[in-house]
Amino acid sequence: MKGKSASPDGIIPGYLINLGDSAKMTLLAFINQTWKNGLPSAWRKAIIVPILKPNKPAENIDSYRPISLTSIMCKLTEIMFANRLLYVLDKIGIISERQAGF
After folding, report:
1. What's the whole-model pTM score?
2. What is the rounded average pLDDT of the residues 47-70?
3. Helices (DSSP H) in 1-102: which residue ranges?
4. Which top-level group of life is the source organism from (predicted)?
5. Per-residue pLDDT band at 95 (split at 50, 70, 90)
6. What's the Rg (C-alpha) of the chain?
7. Is 77 helix (H, G, I), strand (E, B) or coil?
8. How far is Cα 9 from Cα 69, in angstroms, rounded to an integer?
9. Which pLDDT score, from 0 to 100, does residue 101 have?
10. Which of 22, 26, 50, 91 would you label with 32, given CA atoms 20 to 30 Å apart?
């Protein structure tokens, strides 16, 4: 997340990386509340930016790929959820040792 620009909600990833312990606990409490109250509506929105593919003509719409700029808070919540889910699944032995993937 380092070196990234601000997300649509104006939060720069570096802010989250450099939070103190008290602020991290407050952030965790807020994220835990989203499980009870639902995700904030701002987290469900994205800004779509067209990026020109290398060596493609700018006047052709097929020459662009869309990039979605989403909330850094939503990304953080997704990462925390995925890590916790993986931990729980591994702990109770649901994930096979032969399973591979990303």
Report:
1. 0.68
2. 93
3. 13-17, 21-37, 72-91
4. Eukaryota
5. confident
6. 18
7. helix
8. 10
9. 65
10. 91
